[in-house]
Amino acid sequence: MFKLAVSILNSVEKAQVSLNAAKNCLSTWPEDPSIKALADELLLRANNTISTLVPRHEKSLTEELTQLEELRDDAFRAACSYLESFAMLPGSDKGEDAIFILERINPNGFGFLKESYISETGILNERLAFLSTPEVAPRISNLNFGPFVDAIRNSNDVFLENLEKRNAAMDAKPVTMKATIPDLDNAIKAVWSTVLVLKGEERAAAVFADFFTALANQRSRISRKRKPDSPDSPSL
Questions:
Q1: Contacts of 61 (CB under 8 A, 6+ apart)
Q2: Which one, of 84, 76, 123, lies nearest residue 102 by Cα?
Q3: Enclosing domain of residue 127
Q4: Whether the model pTM is above 0.70
Q5: Which of 36, 37, 39, 4 is nearest to 19 (CA)?
Q6: Same domain assignment for residues 62 and 47
Q7: 167 in a domain, yes or no?
Q8: Assign residue 16 a region: left if phi > 0, alpha if psi is -120 to 50, beta otherwise?
């Protein structure tokens, strides 16, 4: 007796083999209205699940965003290193200005650069606002620190532009994959049970061949990961 254990497959693989099963049903019994209606529903549900995959362009946007964040961090670190060099230079007439700026833009070290995009950006915006005040302008000029301020500001602006693009791509994405799975599972079970009753077990298994291959492969993967002496290993 064939048993269709839909829960053990990962969502993407389940959707892909469901597409194959639905297409097999439609090509094998094109004139059967009951099977056709359910197979069409399965096609719809499987495609809905696949449509929630992260688009390739969204992945590239996220990768680019990570690179831009690193460039922004590097610009800030370089600026602080530049100030530290004056602060540590014996007899430098620029040391006081360097310490004044450094204590205000990096009072607690670089730990904030490891925080979330939102937190880090908020802190950097505050520090950039300080660097734009009339109070600090003469000190920046004395230190020739302007190019470093520009580098931080420009890298921050580019990062924020790309963050908006990435967020827009994510907002445009349809519902999450997890939300589509109950409907997909129901559609799979409906097609399987109907074909099983109307056409018999062997023919049902034939159109669901890819499904059973995927199930066998998954069981094999689970078996390899399972500890032989574990009493809690699931029974499939």
A1: 162, 165, 166, 169
A2: 84
A3: 56-171
A4: no
A5: 39
A6: no
A7: yes
A8: alpha
